Amino acid sequence: MKNIGIVGATGAVGQEILGVLEKRNFPINNLKLLASSRNAGKKITFKGKEYTVEELDENSYKGLDIMLFAAGGSVSEKYARAAAENGVVVIDNSSAFRNDPDVPLIVPEVNAGDIKNHKGIIANPNCSTIQMCVALWPIYKKYGIKKIIMSTYQASSGAGKEGMEELIEQAKEFSAGKDMTVNYFRHQLMFNVIPHIDSFTENDYTKEEMKVVHETHKIFHDESIKISVTAVRVPVLRAHSEAITLELGEKATAKEVKELLASSEGIVLQDDIKNDVYPMPYFTATKDETYVGRIREDLVFENGISLWVVADQILKGAALNAVQIAELL
Q1: pLDDT (tens digit per residue) in 261-303
Q2: In Å, how far are 118, 183, 281 from 172, measured between CA atoms?
Q3: How distant, in Å, are the alpha carbons of 124, 158, 193, 218, 273 from that of 231?
Q4: In angstroms, how far is CA 189 from the centroid of its own chain?
Q5: Of 187, 196, 214, 240, which is the active-site residue?
């Protein structure tokens, strides 16, 4: 039985972490729910018991075994190291420590063994990276991967509760014949796609796109893979989609890849194009697994495979992956 603290307990990911802990019956002795002063005092029910959200401060780690941070990078940078230095294992959902060589970056289906190298902090990868790595790891192990070209179709949930609320509000405003309010996203999201997530870097890729590059290299322990990503926000509530083309190290048929993925951990194969069966975010939202379909031999690369990957960004892309890491501990 563990004493667990959740930082950002009132946010979208924090709420989902609670749901996953309850669903998976994680062995909890004491539970501490933490948030900013703005949300302190709120009541949250977990397993039939009511808890009061406490304000996060420098001493919140005391008495805890594991802290799951889901409150953004600045909060993690301010509070995580003190907790780790005092014997608490921190599982962090932000980007604050992902590139730190002393911090394992974990996707349990891929590199669970790296967890033994932690020094008090374990990082949860970016949501897009997680689902891509789950889908590609079996292929990488069997055939090798030289190149990855990916376009993401990322739901409003990737921007948190505020992003989802803005999309819903825009739908209501459109239905009422009103002008749509744009506060959270850079442009109107309803009836639109925005090829811009996070800020642009010097190479004209965004930080969101480069996260996938650097994180995949770290998780796979292979920096030789060439990766190019275009990240796009789409008017979907939750569950990210990815169109991925691979150049493999050796030849694989679509049939072989389908059979491989159908028997791989954490993956559901949905690939029956004759009956219009393939992964879609409307049906994969709130599901734990990573869904893969539209697997076909690519027309550009000689040893190429193209596929379509969909997973719930709040679950496998954040909360579920974090709880799976806690289970490994």
Answers
A1: 999 999 999 999 999 999 999 999 999 999 999 999 999 999 9
A2: 46, 15, 21
A3: 19, 11, 10, 20, 26
A4: 21
A5: 240
- For 287, which DSSP code? -
| CATH superfamily label, 2-124+319-328 | NAD(P)-binding Rossmann-like Domain (3.40.50.720)
The per-residue pLDDT for range 148-186, each reduced to its tens digit, is: 999 999 999 999 889 999 999 999 999 999 999 999 999
- What does the CA dihedral 143, 244, 71, 29 come to, rounded to 10 degrees? -40
Q: Is there a contact between 240 and 310 (Cβ–Cβ < 8 Å)?
A: yes
- The DSSP line for 171-198 is HHHHHTTPPPP-SSSSS--TT--BS--S
Residue spans per domain, the chain = 2-124+319-328, 129-313
Catalytic residue among 118, 127, 196, 217: 127
Q: Is the CA virtual torsion 158, 160, 161, 167 positive or negative?
A: negative
How much is the pTM?
0.95
Cα–Cα–Cα angle for 255, 256, 258, nearest 5°? 65
Please list the residues that pair with 291 across neighbouring strands: 268, 310
Chain-centroid distance of CA 156 in Å reads 13
In eight-state DSSP terms, residue 105 is: B
**Is 127 one of the catalytic residues?**
yes
Q: Please, are residues 184 and 163 in contact by the beta-carbon 8 Å criterion?
A: yes
Provide the 3-class DSSP secondary structure of residue 166.
Answer: helix
CATH class of the domain whose range is 129-313:
alpha beta
Give the residue among 164, 160, 152 at the shortest CA–CA distance from 189: 164
**Residue 133 annotated among the catalytic residues of the structure:** no
